[in-house]
Design brief:
By secondary structure, the chain is an alpha/beta fold. The protein contains 17 helices and 14 strands.
């Protein structure tokens, strides 16, 4: 769904129905900072921060970012520190607190289950993010877009209050040379680390090979998988083999990309099927295939409780009703290099014919890459930053072609668009799975919105057998 779409409100709504609500853990530091700068009208951010257990952290964040009544509409947001290999204390504290806030609000006042989803490709904030979520009692951690073998062990160590480290991918690193991100919960908490509940870990996989690797070679226990097909929204796994594009310029997936479910079943771990499972009858199909349930993203992305701006939802519904809504699997847009699903909407970054070209910049930095500089220290570059800057840092012009600033585009999608010096706001970038073309079917007669509970009611209908598992359906970011 992107950043802030499956937010605390949506995860809470799903959890209250007895399913597993999952918040997106992407860019939460920036999201919290911008929510505070818009005035935190309902007071929920400040309410959650008041419960943050480490003294002084919330006060510093409020002093840095909160604006009573909100910033002027034409004023830019104050930027947060950029993520990096050795982030400063302000970024670490903001990241821990932001993840705590999101999970705390999703879980407050009920006993339902809440998970959080991270991308393995976004490595720098991972340790602080997981710790913040665990401080709030998160029940599940989900991770995809890579091979997160180290994360189960990180969960084990953080639960015991021990220091953790995570190997960071560095482009151009020399043989035997390794770089690590580190986090010490005792240092962060002022001397004594709390003992925390160890959340379950679910790996998001697109192949049986990856599932087997995670099950057998991870640093700790893997508790299950989300098996995601290429029709799911957000980042998709690249096709296996040499990249081929269809006439529209999208990656071509073939028989080699079909997940071998018999090998997944042989691991004897629960799994949930994802990618175009947001339709009546698909749950029964998944159960018959041996799955514990389904993961649903797109149907929830456009419900009342999601973070997408209401005007974008209405655009999507109208085009869906007219049979004109389509998704383009862009092989170039994301700086990660992964194919990325983009809903084609006028007035967004997908509207390349009529939009004003955006001046390139990298001011959020979540998708930038670490690379080895000549002196052996890490540097940072993003294929969507200014082209000359990227080339100066050792990148190639070819790598910049077709890249979009996914970070700022996703922030604009949830109403937190940056404003530049010409008083122009960043355009939204809406991602969803292929099923978005039929999303208007969730609208009840005579209404132009629907709720998360109504999605679940529809998907549970006709499941074909008794289905009462509290983790049977995931609202996934």
């Amino acid at each position: 769904m992107g950043a802030g779409v499956s937010d605390w409100r949506l995860a809470r709504a799903v959890s209250l129905t007895g399913q597993l609500g999952v918040v997106s853990g992407t860019a939460l530091a920036s999201i919290l900072a911008r929510r505070l700068q818009t005035g935190d009208a309902d007071g929920r951010m400040r309410h959650a921060l008041a419960h943050f257990p480490v003294p002084g952290v919330a006060d510093k964040i409020l002093a840095d970012y909160f604006i009573a009544g909100g910033k002027p509409a034409h004023a830019p947001y104050k930027l947060t520190p950029l993520p990096g290999l050795n982030p400063g204390p302000d970024f670490v504290a903001l990241t821990v607190a932001a993840n705590f806030v999101e999970v705390f609000l999703a879980k407050e006042g009920h006993a339902g289950l809440v998970g959080i989803n991270f991308l393995e490709k976004i490595q720098f904030p991972t340790l602080a993010s997981i710790f913040g979520a665990m401080l709030a009692g998160v029940d599940y951690v989900l991770m995809g877009a890579g091979i997160p073998r180290a994360v189960p062990g990180v969960l084990d160590r953080l639960a015991r209050g021990e220091p953790v480290e995570l190997k960071i991918d560095i482009e151009g690193g020399l043989p035997g040379e390794e770089f690590f991100s580190k986090f010490d919960p005792a240092v962060f908490c002022g001397g004594t680390a709390p003992v925390l509940k160890r959340p379950f870990f679910l790996g998001i996989v697109a192949s049986a090979t990856l599932a087997i690797t995670l099950a057998r070679k991870s640093s700790g226990q893997v508790d299950g998988f989300v098996v995601e097909g290429e029709t799911a929204g957000g980042h998709n796994a690249p096709p296996r083999g040499a990249l081929q594009l269809n006439a529209a310029g999208e990656p071509v997936y073939g028989p080699r990309d079909v997940v071998e479910l018999e090998k997944i079943r042989a691991l004897e771990l629960p799994f949930w099927l994802a990618g175009s499972y947001g339709a009546a009858g698909k749950l029964a199909e998944a159960l018959n295939l041996g799955a514990a349930g389904i993961q649903v993203g797109t149907a929830f992305a456009f419900c009342e409780e999601s973070g997408i701006c209401p005007d974008l939802k209405q655009q999507v519904f109208q085009l869906s009703r007219e049979g004109k809504l389509r998704v383009f699997t862009d092989p170039l847009a994301s700086p990660t290099g992964f194919p990325f699903k983009i809903v084609q909407l006028p007035g967004t970054l997908s509207d390349k014919e009529s939009r004003t070209p955006r001046d390139r910049c990298c001011d959020l930095g979540y998708l930038r890459h670490a690379y080895r500089k000549a002196d052996g220290t890490p540097g940072y570059r993003c294929p969507a930053e200014p082209v000359d800057d990227f080339i100066r840092k050792g990148g190639t012009r070819e790598e910049t072609l077709g890249r979009e600033c996914v970070c700022n585009g996703l922030m604009a999608t949830i109403g937190l668009a940056q404003v530049n010096s010409e008083n122009v706001s960043d355009l939204p970038l809406v991602t969803a799975g292929n099923e978005v073309a039929q999303v208007a079917r969730f609208l009840p007669p005579g209404r132009d919105t629907y709720t998360a509970a109504e999605v679940i009611q529809r998907l549970l209908a006709g499941a074909g057998k008794a289905f009462a598992s509290t983790t049977g359906m995931l609202a996934q970011a």
